[in-house]
Design brief:
Elements: H1 2-27, E1 37-43, E2 46-50, E3 65-68, E4 71-78, E5 85-87, E6 94-98, E7 102-107, E8 110-114, E9 120-121, E10 127-129, E11 134-140, E12 154-155, E13 163-164, E14 171-179, E15 185-194, E16 199-202, E17 204-205, E18 208-217, E19 222-224, E20 241-251, E21 258-263, E22 274-275, E23 282-285, E24 295-296, E25 301-314, E26 318-323, E27 335-339, E28 352-364, E29 369-372, E30 377-379, E31 393-397, E32 405-416, E33 419-428, E34 433-435, E35 442-443, E36 447-448, E37 451-459, E38 465-476, E39 479-484, E40 490-494, E41 500-507, E42 510-512, E43 518-520, E44 523-528, E45 536-548, E46 555-558, E47 564-571, E48 576-581, E49 586-592, E50 594-597, E51 604-607, E52 610-612, E53 620-623, E54 631-634, E55 636-638, H2 644-676, H3 681-690, H4 696-705, H5 711-719
Parallel strand pairs: 14-45
Antiparallel strand pairs: 1-4, 2-3, 5-55, 6-54, 7-8, 7-11, 7-50, 8-52, 9-10, 10-11, 11-12, 11-49, 13-47, 14-46, 15-16, 15-33, 15-36, 17-35, 18-19, 18-32, 20-24, 20-29, 20-31, 21-23, 21-28, 22-27, 25-26, 25-28, 26-27, 29-30, 32-33, 33-34, 37-38, 38-39, 39-42, 40-41, 41-44, 42-43, 44-45, 47-48, ...
Helix pairs in contact: 1-2, 2-3, 4-5
Length: about 725
């Protein structure tokens, strides 16, 4: 009997272990990412009463006689199945909705693994599990590019208010369609509108492009070249005579004086009649009295003033005034002026006299600025001869003092009939009027195709935005031409800040095959700025354009952007964290790392929803979620995979097993007591019946009464 008690004790211990596991499962029914466990049992070794024998010629084989010695806990298995996904609305919560991956978290150099995706950013922008402070591991992006590097993970850090530098536009890519059946119109005549407000109707419009090559220097200055200027090289200082043009004006400064000769002007009523008693004298402002501020031109008036110290009348009309030494005629020396026709003026000592002289000569010194009629302006490296006429010219020779050439472009306007054109309207033979391009030739009976206007957004090196108009015009079947907004290859954009952006287009015709597919055609833009940004080149990718019958839907998408600040982040199903900036740019910031094990059930539970590798967890693979077949759901958490119905069933079964083993111990004890008292067979049977045991015959009679078996079968079974 002693064996049964020991077997029952082993059953009690095993079922107690199972009840412990069931209790722990139920306790964690709402624990995020919790994985339930189960207990499996195995019988212990059996005692052999007799071994098995093989059959022989006289008798068949005999099975072994064995008595089991109880049971033991075979295993406590981790049930690594997915739990349900519950939406939370928090954008940093992440649920593992498919696959057996785990998040990688760290504490110092230690790495742990978890299914708990309740993440948050801390004060320094680190992605953490806020309940433990463990850092979520992943791969940080470099300028929006993520390189997944296996075990080489790092903590994910995305500071709030992270800034994004401006990026210069380098490429503009065109997509979609140009209408192959764009209708053509026969031109009847052309209405030309001029910049001066006048108009003209003509049967033949052939504009001329008027403009100059322009050097953009590294100091931001622009130099407009003559047609006779020698070739220049980008990256070098300009050489040779760059331009020769009429002088418009000169500007004086404290570091660039201008000598001047001033004369009285009898035709100007504001001019003195005499100075220091002379009607023909000229005033020379040179040396200490040279001009140190202001802009002047030959033949312009020069304003004079001084405080009156005496007034002498000379009837009938002239008045002689004495001005103190602070006058602007001869600074430092008092001067007398005779004022003609002073009838409408009142003069008194202490008043300020004002008048005008005529500039008859200007001599700019080193450092003064000369501006010419062609739009050039230069600070002189040496004095130039006196300017004594309105036709005086200045020729500029390029040198290192001008700086380094950063770009060469062309700035131009279109003229027709000697006047600048502002717009053209094509009157067609069908009676309609269609806007044309000022840079295109049109003549009566020509076939005209309406243009398709597009805009390329370009960001310069300072992050400023510029909209460049690019026009596509059908030239013939399967052939289109490109131009800028004016219809030509150059275009000037007047920006909101008043500066000018100059655009030049380099291109070939855009051609398609008979199936509407791209064949050839290239283009690029050159841009120079007055806002201090560096000149730039923008490549235009035209290869994705198609030409099918239907609506023209062509559009351009360009790279580059303005500076911005991180406004928000979101996480996709692969664990990629994307930031949205105030400049409307979305950029990848990081990717959450995921771990996978050959045997995730072999991981060691560490508490706090954490796991660690074990000797039987298998090979570890760390990568992105998609690489290991794991799918994530954001703004959600994975709940426990505990099934309460199963757990309650297991609890009842475990309870029954525990009770049965307890009963075995009780019966065994009573029977051993009777045996020690030398109880008879009847007493033993009675004791067994009292504890719920029945004889086989008694059980058989109940089965017969219940219709489960027959009396013959019971007799046979009890006999055996």
């Amino acid at each position: 009997m002693i064996r049964s008690m020991f077997s029952a004790v082993s059953g009690l211990k095993g079922h107690q272990t199972r009840m412990d596991v069931v209790g722990n499962n139920i306790a964690n029914v709402n624990t995020t990412g919790f994985k339930a466990s189960r207990v499996t049992f195995a019988d212990m070794i059996s005692q052999n009463l007799s071994g098995a024998s093989a059959p022989n010629g006289t008798i068949g084989g005999v099975n072994p006689k064995q008595i089991g010695l109880g049971m033991s806990v075979a295993s406590t298995d981790l049930l690594y199945t997915n739990g349900s996904v519950q939406q939370t609305g928090k954008n940093t919560d992440i649920a593992i909705s498919r696959g057996d991956g785990l998040f990688v978290v760290s504490k110092g150099q230690q790495k742990f693994y978890t299914r708990n995706g309740a993440f948050s950013f801390d004060a320094e922008g680190n992605l953490t599990i806020p309940s433990t402070g463990l850092y979520v591991q992943g791969y940080m992006a470099n300028n929006g590019v993520i390189s997944v590097a296996g075990d080489n993970t790092t903590k994910i850090r995305i500071p709030a208010g992270k800034s994004m530098e401006a990026q210069t536009t380098a490429t503009a890519s065109y997509t979609k369609n140009l209408n192959a059946t764009t209708p053509g119109y026969e031109v009847a005549n052309v209405l030309v509108r001029y910049a001066d407000g006048t108009t003209q109707t003509t049967n033949s419009y052939a504009p001329s492009e008027v403009g100059k090559l322009v050097l953009t220097m590294d100091n931001g200055r622009k130099i407009y070249l003559d047609s006779s200027a020698p070739a220049q090289t980008v990256g070098s200082a300009p050489t040779g005579t760059l331009y020769s043009s009429t002088i418009s004006n000169v500007t004086a400064s404290t570091t660039g004086h201008v000598d001047a000769v001033l004369a009285m002007d009898s035709g100007n009523p504001s001019s003195p009649k005499e100075i220091n008693g002379s009607a023909t004298a000229t005033i020379t402002r040179t040396g200490a009295t040279s001009l140190t501020s202001g802009t002047y031109a030959f033949g312009d008036v020069f304003n004079i003033s001084g405080k009156i110290t005496s007034v002498v009348s000379s009837p009938p009309s002239d008045v002689v005034l004495t001005l103190d030494a602070n006058n602007t005629i001869t600074p430092g020396t008092p001067v007398t002026v005779k004022v003609p026709n002073p009838n409408s003026f009142t003069y008194a000592v202490g008043d300020t006299y004002t008048g005008q002289l005529k500039i008859t000569s200007l001599t700019p010194q080193t450092g003064a600025t000369v501006t010419t009629a062609d739009g050039n302006s230069v600070k002189l490296a040496a004095a130039i001869p006196a300017i004594t006429s309105a036709t005086a010219t200045y020729a500029h020779t390029g040198s290192a003092t001008d700086g380094t050439i950063q770009a060469i472009t062309r700035e131009s306007v279109y003229q027709f009939g000697g006047k600048t054109v502002s717009s053209v309207v094509l009157n067609t033979k069908s009676g309609s009027s269609i806007d044309g391009l000022v840079g295109k030739d049109y003549a009566r009976n020509d076939t005209f195709y309406p243009s398709v206007a597009t805009t390329i957004t370009v960001y310069d090196s300072l992050g400023a935005k510029h909209d460049v108009p690019v026009v596509f015009t059908k030239a013939s079947n399967n052939k289109w031409t490109l131009s800028l907004g004016s219809g030509g290859d150059t275009f000037n954009i007047t920006e909101a800040d008043g500066t000018t952006t100059t655009v030049a287009l380099t291109k070939t015709d855009l051609k398609f095959d008979t199936s509407g597919s791209y064949v050839s055609g290239t283009a690029s833009l050159s841009l120079t700025y007055e806002n201090g940004a560096a000149p730039q080149q923008v490549a235009m990718n035209l290869a994705a354009i198609t030409q099918y019958s239907g609506t023209s839907t062509i559009a351009a998408d360009s790279d580059g952007h303005a500076a911005g600040t991180l406004a928000s982040v979101d996480i996709d199903s692969t664990g990629v964290i994307t930031g949205t900036y105030t400049n409307n740019v979305r950029q990848k910031e990081a990717q959450i790392a995921m771990a996978q094990f050959n045997n995730p059930s072999g991981l060691t539970k560490m508490g706090g929803n954490l796991y660690q590798e074990s000797n039987n967890s298998g090979t570890r693979t760390i990568s992105g979620a998609s690489d290991i077949g794991t799918e994530l759901t954001t703004s959600a958490l994975e709940m426990s995979n505990v099934d309460l119905a199963d757990q309650f069933s297991d609890m009842i079964i475990t309870q029954r097993g525990f009770q049965s083993n307890s009963k075995i111990i009780t019966v065994d004890d009573e029977m051993r007591s009777l045996i020690h008292k030398s109880a008879g067979e009847g007493e033993l049977r009675a004791a067994a019946r009292a504890n719920g045991f029945r004889s086989m015959r008694e059980d058989g009679q109940r089965w017969i009464d219940a219709g489960i078996t027959s009396q013959d079968e019971v007799v046979r079974a009890t006999r055996d």
